[in-house]
Backbone:
């Protein structure tokens, strides 16, 4: 049966990929976005009858009105950049903390079936051991990490206090089509792809030996869909990643070899707030959500490269 989804931040990177998948499966989708980093042009390929509401999650009164009548809220509206949070910690806490609280209040009052929140692996921060397990304590290293933890904690409390079915997906490094390449505060994959396509050297912060667990966005989309319906997932937090890691130097090598180039990167000072290594244990998501990442890093980078080649 068709369900009604409200996707906050639906015009952003993860949102656009999610919404196009939901629409392709025949679901009814409403996007709520203030288009601060999300783009109207991202929505061009989506069905014309889809609802798009231009509004802010910081406006609780109107959010309440918009959430009514939906089965699921997928909360993606957020400020996703560590670097930007270091420059403006207050803004990050407002959007990721208060914005999430508002979305939870509106979802609780509208009695939605489930609220799925995409949090971040930045929450693990400087926890010393790898891989990261959901049972580890949070050790934030940046204002962004604090703000994403604030959102996650509110989700937990809305389940324990009000019985709202919340599911937290702690996403690791997500990449794929529609990720903003122009944003200097943005993620490495699109920045490196665009620089290499322009035959320029990619700039690596630090020595490049830092490692990340990179997941293709289509696998995160599958996890979000599973989180809406998986039995006993309510009140739980899941790592969403591949369970393997690649160094930033390794990422540049892979992109170079996919492009048939040998462009050497430039190195600059490490960025404040960045974690050294990141790798997930995804056993819990495998067991409870049936999560199986399907896209290998090489295939994922190859199709992402093709997408940027066509869209630039
Ligand atoms: N991309 C990743 O690797 C990653 C990893 C872990 C967690 N996350 C989290 O997932 C969420 C989505 O990330 P993304 O990469 O798609 O980022 P994005 O910037 O592409 O998307 C965020 C969307 O939220 C919208 N938005 C921001 N503030 C808003 C507000 N006050 N009201 C309404 N809309 C607002 C933006 O316009 C944008 O469309 C963020 O919360 C981010 O922290 C992302």
Residues:
């Amino acid at each position: 049966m068709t369900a009604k989804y409200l996707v906050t931040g639906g015009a952003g990177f993860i949102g656009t990929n999610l919404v196009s998948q939901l629409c392709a499966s025949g679901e009814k989708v409403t996007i709520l976005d203030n288009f601060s980093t999300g783009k109207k042009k991202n929505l061009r390929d989506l069905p014309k009858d889809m609802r798009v509401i231009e509004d802010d999650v910081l406006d609780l009164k109107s959010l309440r009105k918009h959430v009514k009548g939906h089965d699921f809220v997928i909360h993606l509206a957020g400020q996703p950049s560590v670097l930007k949070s270091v420059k403006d910690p207050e803004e990050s806490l407002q959007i990721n903390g208060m914005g999430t609280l508002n979305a939870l209040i509106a979802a609780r009052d509208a009695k939605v079936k489930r609220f799925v929140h995409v949090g971040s692996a930045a929450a693990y921060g400087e926890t010393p051991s790898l891989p990261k397990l959901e049972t580890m304590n949070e050790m934030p290293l940046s204002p962004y990490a604090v703000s994403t933890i604030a959102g996650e904690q509110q989700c937990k409390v809305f389940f324990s206090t009000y019985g709202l079915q919340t599911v937290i997906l702690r996403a690791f490094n997500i990449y794929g089509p529609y990720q903003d390449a122009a944003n200097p505060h943005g993620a490495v994959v699109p920045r490196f792809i665009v620089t290499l396509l322009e035959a320029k050297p990619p700039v690596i912060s630090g020595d490049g030996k830092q490692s990340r667990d990179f997941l293709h966005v289509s696998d995160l989309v599958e996890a979000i869909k599973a989180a809406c319906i998986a039995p006993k997932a309510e009140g739980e937090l899941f790592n969403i990643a591949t369970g393997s890691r690649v160094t930033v130097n390794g990422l540049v090598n892979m992109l170079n070899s996919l492009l048939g180039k040998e462009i050497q990167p430039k190195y600059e000072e490490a960025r404040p707030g960045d974690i050294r290594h990141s790798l997930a244990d995804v056993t819990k998501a495998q067991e409870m959500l049936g999560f199986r990442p399907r896209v290998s890093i090489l295939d994922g980078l190859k199709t992402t490269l093709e997408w940027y080649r066509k869209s630039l």
About this structure: Residues 125 and 275 are 6 Å apart (CA to CA). The longest helix spans residues 89-109. The mean pLDDT is 96.
